[in-house]
Amino acid sequence: MEQLVRAAINSMTSPPTKLDGKLPPLTGYSTAANSPTLSTADDRPSWAVELDGLVDDISELLVEIRRHLHRNPELSGSERQTTHYLTGLLRQSGLTPNLEPEDCGAVVDGPNPENVQRVALRGDLDALPIQDAKDCEYRSRVDGAMHACGHDAHAACLTGCALVLHRLHRSGGLPWPVPWRVILQPSEELATGARAMIDRGVLNNVKAIFGLHMDPSRPVGEISLRDGPMTAACDELNFRIQGQGGHSARPQNAKDPVMAAAMLISEVYQLLPRRTNPFNPVLATIGSVTAGTAANIIPKSALLKGMLRYAENDSRIPTQEALREIARGVESSTGCAIEVTFPVGCAGVKNDARLNRLILEAANHCPTPVRVFELPHPSMGGEDFGEYTLSVPGGFFRLGCQIAPDYADLHSPLFDLDERCLTLGVRLLVRAAVLCSRPQRTA
pTM for the complete prediction? Predict the structure, then answer.
């Protein structure tokens, strides 16, 4: 493995670099999923040509990184070996990553002698508690853990971005100063990692942030974008119901929390859509119901756990209050006490239109055509990259990685991806960082 890393780093040749001042026109992305924008590599600036050569040099390394992580997944909050592995690669190339507390996650910065605002690139590290059902050489070796959401590929791409940006700086290949920061974030699946990183200052002196997510519904060579809301805001939802236990033959002497739970589930599903704006969808799902230990005993308590998803961040507070009102109504009907909590959640990704245009511009001078689609509506899936976009402008895109027409979707025990997507992810993110750092033209 070490030989592969050193060979990849040493093979990064540095052709003469000269910014020719020409960038492809920004054509805009398509307005319908079946009407893609086709990009071209015509007239690539020389820095982009060198960038692409460096990415080609590490293409095998990117695959090896992804497969190593896929074999050795770590769940949220325990990504220590993942972090040590990736930061070891970065140190071998001459970078100095800073480890996060408990060695879960890291941040690595490029040079910034003028102390200007940086452009951040973010990738996540954690796996899911799923048993890998694939039959391949790189299947998970950890029982009950698997990279079923593509975070192994995200981590490989972001490590590659740091290596390429570092080499471009050392070779003098950057067209202008690019003060970059790569964030390797833990605990995305718990929706706690981004907020913890922000609280420790990863957005200090950052003017913009870019990220990506694997998309198995699209083949390699396609990406999708959306201005404004891109993913749903999400909150975990808990109802703790305290009743009064008793004999199942004498329910009049008890306060039945199971009855309250049944009413609550029904009321949430029926009433919440009547309490929220239909033009800003809200989705509530109860996924866990816990109560009782025996068939003939009315238990004293029950616990419901579920998820709330909002198409717009602004819907979070009014929706939470609507749920509290529903719970108060069930309390009045049943005599049970109901505590409503939202123990963890994350904002929805909100894309900055200007940064999306930079992603499109990046796609327009990749060495092979990139098909760019506009998403017609936000995904109701969660992504804690949205926490970053509460503080700084963000650009987030989906990267096609479909391995077969009958692909397994995200969070499936059969999930896999076409590893040719890795080089495209690096090309796009590095280009976005360079373009976002482009000096402003003056009159």
Answer: 0.88
